[in-house]
Design brief:
heterodimer, A: 116 residues, mainly beta, six-stranded mixed sheet, B: 114 residues, seven-stranded mixed sheet, four-stranded antiparallel sheet, globular
C-alpha cells in the first residue's frame, strides 16, 4: 500500500487566493513526522513545513500551514495569498519514527500553477 | 553555509560505462540517502546510510552501489548503467536526533544513459 497519497496531479489557483494541496498517509507507527517540500522548475527540493504526530497544534510557517487531521490520516498543505513564485511541484512526505535518521516516503507530487 | 553538494549536476553517458556521482555535506549529519525522481513516481529511495560504514538498501537499489567511508561523503556508483537508470538523482542528509529535523537535499544530478 502507498504510504503517501497525493490525489491532485495538478492544481490552478488565482494569484492572492488560498489553495489547499491534499495529502493522505498510511502508517501503523504512532510516532511519525510529516513534511512538505517544494520543487521549483530549477529542480532543487526546498523544505517548507513539518508536523510531528504528537504535535497538538497545526504547524505554520509564514504563508504555509499544515492542516493535520490525525484520525483521517491527512496532512494537507494550505498556501495563503498565493504568489506567482509559488508555481512549482509540491511533495508530501512521511517519516516513520521521530528521529531524523528514519527514511522519508514521498508522494507523487502536485503541480501548482498560480495564474496572474 | 550549510549545504549538500553533488557532482556532476548533469551527465550524459553510454550504456555500460561505470560512473560515480559524488555527494558531500558539511553539517556533520549522521544520516545520508540517495533518491531517484521519475515523472509520476515521486522520489524513491535507492540506498541510505545511518553512519560511517553503515549502509542499507532502499526501495530501488538494483543497479546501484554506495559507500560511506567518511561521514561527510556518500558517493553513488553505477557499475554498468542502463537506459532505465536515466533519472534525476538527489542526495540528502539529516541529523540522527529526535525532532523536526528535515532532510537537506542536494541540487540534483540529471543523468541520461543512452
Amino acid at each position: 500500500a502507498q504510504k503517501i497519497t497525493q490525489t491532485q496531479p495538478g492544481m490552478f489557483v488565482q494569484e492572492k487566493e488560498a489553495v489547499t494541496l491534499d495529502c493522505t498517509y498510511d502508517t501503523s507507527d504512532p510516532s511519525y513526522g510529516l513534511f512538505w517540500y517544494k520543487q521549483p522548475s530549477s529542480g532543487e527540493m526546498i523544505f517548507l513545513i513539518y508536523q510531528g504526530s504528537y504535535d497538538q497544534q497545526n504547524a505554520t510557517e509564514g504563508r504555509y500551514s499544515l492542516n493535520f487531521q490525525k484520525a483521517r490520516k491527512s496532512a494537507n498543505l494550505v498556501i495563503s495569498a498565493s504568489q506567482l513564485g509559488d508555481s512549482a511541484m509540491y511533495f508530501c512526505a512521511m517519516r516513520e519514527g521521530l528521529t531524523g535518521a528514519n527514511n522519508l516516503f514521498f508522494g507523487t507530487g502536485t503541480r501548482l500553477t498560480v495564474i496572474p | 553555509e550549510a549545504q549538500v553538494t553533488q557532482n556532476p549536476r548533469y551527465l550524459i553517458t553510454v550504456t555500460g560505462k561505470k560512473l560515480t556521482v559524488t555527494c558531500s555535506q558539511n553539517m556533520n549529519h549522521e544520516y545520508m540517502s540517495w533518491y531517484r525522481q521519475d515523472p509520476g513516481l515521486g522520489l524513491r529511495q535507492i540506498y541510505y546510510s545511518m553512519n560511517v560504514e553503515v549502509t542499507d538498501k532502499g526501495d530501488v537499489p538494483e543497479g546501484y552501489k554506495v559507500s560511506r567511508k567518511e561521514k561527510r561523503n556518500f558517493p553513488l556508483i553505477l557499475e554498468s548503467p542502463s537506459p532505465n537508470q536515466t533519472s534525476l538523482y538527489f542526495c540528502a542528509s539529516s541529523y540522527d536526533r529526535t525532532g523536526p529535523y528535515e532532510q537537506y537535499f542536494g541540487p540534483g544530478t540529471r543523468l541520461t544513459v543512452t
